[in-house]
Amino acid sequence: MLRLQNRLDQATLDNDRGNYYNAKDNLDKALAIAEKIDDKSSQGKIHTKIAKVQFLVNEKDQANISISKAIQLQRDNNDYGNLAITYNIKGVIHSTEREYENALEYFNSAKNLFEQENLEEYTSEVTLNEAKVFILLKRYEEAKTKLEKTIIIAKKYDQNRRLSSALIQSGKVYYALKNPKMALSQTEEGLAIAQSLKNIENINEAYLTLSDIHEKNEDYKNSHYYIKKHIHLSDSILNIKRENLVPGISGQNISNYNDAKNAQLKAQIDEVKADSAFTRITTILSIALITILSLLTLSLYKNNNIRLNTNTMLHKKNDELIVAKEKAELASKTKANFLSTVTHELRTPLYAVTGLTNMLLDEEPKEHQIPHLKSLKFSGEYLLTFINDILQINKIEANKVEIDPEHFNLKNKLENVISALSNSAKDQDTQIHFEYENGLPETFVGDQLKISQILINLLGNAIKFTKDGDIWVRAYKVDLKDNMYSLRFEIEDNGIGITKENKITCLRVSLKALYKSTENMAELV
């Protein structure tokens, strides 16, 4: 672990000095150590650091691959804090490729994870990056809000380097919003902090911003002064980068290899000019073979680049699919919470209705009031049970709802359903007739709630489409085997009816959730 940490510390030091090649070398060695000791957490962090270095030296394809490896490792290990850092770098890469909406999505994901892990001090870098994207999109008010938040957090946690950058960016925003006084104040404050830290990148950006502000104020002397300082410092930064960067040489190696082979071949040709025709033919064939091998090598090199680009695209699409999956899971969770809240709120008044109904029944009501009170009690209890069933909506969607068998009186259940809907039938001037097969037992074991739901839906539809008519509700035995009854329920009416297409649609809507888990509902034990 000590060797691993030493490599990481040295890589950080090299990176801060701009020695990106040395930083990459130390990170590769640190990754080898982490893989050897099977330290998944360190592997994820190192892949993120490697991606950052690759991005700085403009190896964006390799950076995307390293980022994808880091994301996969950190998700597998629930390392959400470091995953947020990786999302932030992924957002920066998208912003440099002008994929601004993708960049903002990754910045938002990073910020949410930091807040989830109570890592507020890390959010300042994310909000600063968001502000830079909003500036590029010329959405200056949104950029201003993000920068104000960045400045507050940076001051709270003594993040002076980030504070300097945020103040300079704030100067740009105020300049765009035509507030030169605030623009000048913010930029000069950011420059002072950058100079105290000797942060040449922030100093250079402040020089350019101050030049633009002074030019806007028609102070051309100061504008010229700062633009000269900006150009001079930019040249210095460029020279440092040229000294530290070591570009990839794979393509050059192939070219050098071919040149050396061709030179060697020419020397051999000069030596054997006087040889026989057989030797000349051999030489020509050798040239052809070398040429073919050179072309084959070049072709393999190009194919490797194409495969690398394809892999990068696949990694990017995979990341987008994972983000979409997380959004869908969040939406599902939100829906479940909403259903739970609504159903709990509905149960309270229904408990009052059923409780008061029981009290009225216990107080010896008049004879003609008893059927109405029983109907009210049944309806209230049915609604309560139905609401409890709604709470299991997630189980219904997952096909995990089970039948809840219990002893109940089927005949009374059917009479209660008819009684509950009798007022609706009277409003339609419709008479309901109940036929229960003689000799059919009244007590069964089954899921009475789901039977009630189906019959109420069907009887309700019959009442809806029957005016000045009759409806027949029938229950009779179809089969009896090993004390298992198969019953048939019929609801017939002489109303106007429903079209064939609408019948199928209504039945599907009414029974869709129930049918998935109760295919054998007609069979009662």
From TrEMBL:
SMART domains: HisKA, TPR. This is histidine kinase. TPR repeats lie at residues 84-117. Keywords: Kinase, Phosphoprotein, TPR repeat, Transferase. It comes from Winogradskyella psychrotolerans RS-3. GO terms for molecular function: phosphorelay sensor kinase activity. It is an enzyme of class 2 (transferase). It catalyses: ATP + protein L-histidine = ADP + protein N-phospho-L-histidine. The lineage of its organism: Bacteria, Pseudomonadati, Bacteroidota, Flavobacteriia, Flavobacteriales. InterPro entries: HATPase_C_sf, HATPase_dom, His_kinase_dom, HisK_dim/P_dom, HisK_dim/P_sf, TPR-like_helical_dom_sf, TPR_rpt. Residues 341-501 form the Histidine kinase domain.
